[in-house]
Amino acid sequence: MDEPRTQHDASLDPVSPPPAPDDALSRRRLVVGGLAAVGAAAVAATTLGRASSAVAAAQPLSAKVVVADPTLCVGCLACEVNCSTWHASVGRSALPRIRILATPQVALRKEVAAYLPARAGYSPATCRQCATPWCLPNCPTTGLRIDPKTGNRYIAEDDCIACGKCEVDCPVEWQGTLALTGEAIASKRVVFDPATNVYAKCDLCIGREEGPICVERCPVNVAIKAGYVKSDHLALDLKPSTEEQWKVLV
Amino acid sequence: MKRFEHTNATSVAEAVRLLSAQNARALAGGTDLLGIMKDELLPTARVVNLKTIPGLDYIREESGELRLGALATLAAVAGSALVAQKAPALAQAALAVATPQIRNMGTLGGNLAQKVRCWYYRDPDRADCYKRGGGFCYAIFGASDVHAIFGGAACFAVQPSDTAVALAALGASLVVAGPAGHRVVGIDALFTGPEVDYLRETSLAQDELVVEVRIPASALGQKSLFLKAAPRRSIDFARGSVAALVVGSPLVQTARLALGAVAPTPHRATAAEAHLAGKRLQADVIARAAELATEGAKPLAGNAYKVQLIQGLVRQALTRLAA
Q1: Class of domain B56-323
Q2: Which chain A residue is nearest to residue B154, measuring alpha carbons?
Q3: Which residue in A41, A84, A230, B273 has a CA-CA distance of 20 to 30 Å to B266?
Q4: A77 Cα to chain B: minimum distance (Å)
Q5: The model's pTM
């Protein structure tokens, strides 16, 4: 019989199994302007165990998180396509880390509806760069990392062994219908890529000088910045990640 | 036009070898390629002439299928009694392309492999859009009259080929030659959307070429037709088109309905097809099929008219097939 390679530290085991699919997290509904708030402490206690939640809670906030306003989204999928293409171009997984969900109940803000009245009903959603990074503590390698300068929660894909623990611990889901395919999606926002055998999540395009490509290439953003769509905020924006910001994210 | 090398291939294998050079392009009739080269839409260092390959322009029945060599001209396809009898939608689509002069030179293979007609893509004086290797689409907040109402991802240009739509309805497959030999690919797998690679319209590698189009026995001799709507009765690319294949009468056994110029690939109206199965082609059934054909369309600013246009074309096509 082989000796175990490491001593098992029971204090890092979750105190209870991960949340079941029909719990409060999955009953979130996407409503314009806000979401049902989920208490950080309650999630951590049920998913990670006390020692791991302490590790997670001690991490710095992310300076940036991608924030979407569904009422400005026209479902062009440029964010998904650019995300996929750019990450593949730098040798990372080509899975898009931002997804557009088809959400017919979402209306378009009138400044955008003036141009594209038939293209309401889309909600972009990506990694929330959680203030408490639940994905981090149970990563057995140095795959899941936090950039000390920016707080960016990202996966160094070369070090990822695809164990899936980040996926288990991630508290946010993509649930509904994908705009790209019309098919159902039910997954966490960190996903396994069988093509590269790693997990992929929004990494704020770490290493890209211009920053996240989805924010740069969103055509509604371009229209807002050019002044022909009037809006005091962008369709896809970068905001500091805080507990308060987390609660209102899509 | 920049300098380029012109080479004559005398066999498919030689053409494949010559096409593996950097920026090598296949030249058949050249009715798209020459324009692409003049506007520098694709860098072209070498042109590989396929017209010097003998025996690729046949139209014949073989092994129960209708098989056409990729170098058959559109005029030959349009004028072929065999195609008119066995696969009328293809004959009608070939006749609908462009003008007599272009149909005399343009080939079936070239019609399938052509680049998009999006007016922003084709404008050489404009900064590069996605399909030209840039990072923007002008159509989304611009003039989108000729763009997609289904699909699209970053790029909303439509597949412009008329024969592609007819072949989608006929359930055709294609023989593709490449460095590893020949492969047979279904028409659905030949065309790819921008979510796969917005630089391309087909799954063909640079050193691959279509050598044969095959129409299966299941489609031969069945009722089919192709209708095209365009600003002028000749020369223009489609603003909307419909190809319909109906098997079975008076009750429809199977129907295949392909829509053109409304998506980055030929768009199968599967909900309408399912609705038609088992029914008679009477007015109320046809009207509902037309509605189902455009369900889920998400027009841009300038192309909402395509919804009514397609519904009208579907009604017309099915009504004619019912007669």
Answers
A1: alpha beta
A2: A78
A3: A84
A4: 5
A5: 0.90
